[in-house]
């Protein structure tokens, strides 16, 4: 597995990242099952794990942390990402009247500390602001993120779902660099290649992360777009002796922006095959065949 540098202050991250959003959706959330997933990742060199405070209605980080207690050796074998600022309506927070974002220093710092305690780790490798906050005071948020890094609780910070102007605003109020923007990229969500999102990451010299690289499973559905995409991908998959899922991920890996796909299957057999994507090479014309199927039209 290729290991990539997001910033000098960070350990190397695995090019493929495993995401924990669906952890609590699995019918089996036992420590054994969580450990089995992590072990299947590690066997392939997938060492970077993507969490968020809100995943599983605030349950996923704790599920993972409970499993780590049973296997503390896995703690240092992985790099741990988490996120903050989304305030879900939840039975855990009965006083909350509206779903909102909170990039206040109090929330950002408390959320990071809660993630550390739920995960049972000493420092987050990366903390992301999960969604751009239309009520953000960039001076306060930037200072809070810097202070988390200076205190050693977080090794680096980044953002998620940010537009280029959101990135500029927050970065202008920090002395530490934002090291990634985690955005939706998959063959059914390709706007980022032309709307400035990927261009901004390339301009800044940061590597984007791609959430839902298989469109959250929609790539395997019955929509006309999914059928068309699969028809284009199937010969490439057959030629490389891998599944369509590996071709979709390889299509992201092929892009010069250095995208890190964040995969989310709960299925142990699929987890065991995630690294198949690294065995598929996609040339320029194959990339555009998939892009054309994604947009439904020939490039002008
Ligand atoms: N920053 C953000 O705002 C944001 C938003 C969303 C997600 N994320 C991150 O991205 C990670 C991945 O998201 P995701 O889970 O949506 O990614 P994904 O890998 O695109 O989708 C996973 C879903 O696709 C299904 N699937 C995978 N392979 C399949 C196949 N061959 N055939 C049929 N179904 C298949 C899985 O079902 P099975 O489980 O049954 O295999 C699962 O439901 C999350 O865990 C989270 O860490 C971040």
CATH class: Alpha Beta
Strand order of the largest sheet: 3-4-5-8-9-10-11-12
Q: Would you tell me the overall average pLDDT?
A: 97
CATH topology: TIM Barrel
Structural class: alpha/beta
CATH homologous superfamily designation: NADP-dependent oxidoreductase domain
Ligands and ions found: NADP nicotinamide-adenine-dinucleotide phosphate
What fraction of the residues are assigned to beta strands by DSSP?
5-15%
Give me the CATH architecture, please. Answer: Alpha-Beta Barrel
| Unreliable sequence segments | none
- What proportion of the residues is helical, as a percent range? 40-55%
Taking the sheet with the most strands, its summary is: 8 strands, parallel, barrel
Overall shape: it is globular
How far apart are the first and last residues' alpha carbons, in Å? 36 Å
* Distinct helical segment count: 12
* Tally of individual domains: 1
Q: Encode the helix/strand succession as letters.
A: EEEHEHHHEEEHEHEHEHEHHEHH
GO cellular component, one term: cytosol
GO molecular function: oxidoreductase activity
Pfam family, one: Aldo_ket_red
Domain NADP-dependent oxidoreductase: 15-291
3D structure, described in words:
The chain is built from 12 helices and 12 strands. The protein is an alpha/beta fold and 300 residues long. It has one domain (3-295): TIM Barrel (Alpha-Beta Barrel). An 8-stranded parallel barrel has the order 3-4-5-8-9-10-11-12. Strands 1-2 form a two-stranded antiparallel sheet. A two-stranded antiparallel ribbon has the order 6-7. α8 links the parallel β10 and β11 (209-211). Bound molecules: NADP nicotinamide-adenine-dinucleotide phosphate. One of its GO terms (cellular component) is cytosol. Residues 15-291 form the NADP-dependent oxidoreductase domain. It comes from Litorivicinus lipolyticus.
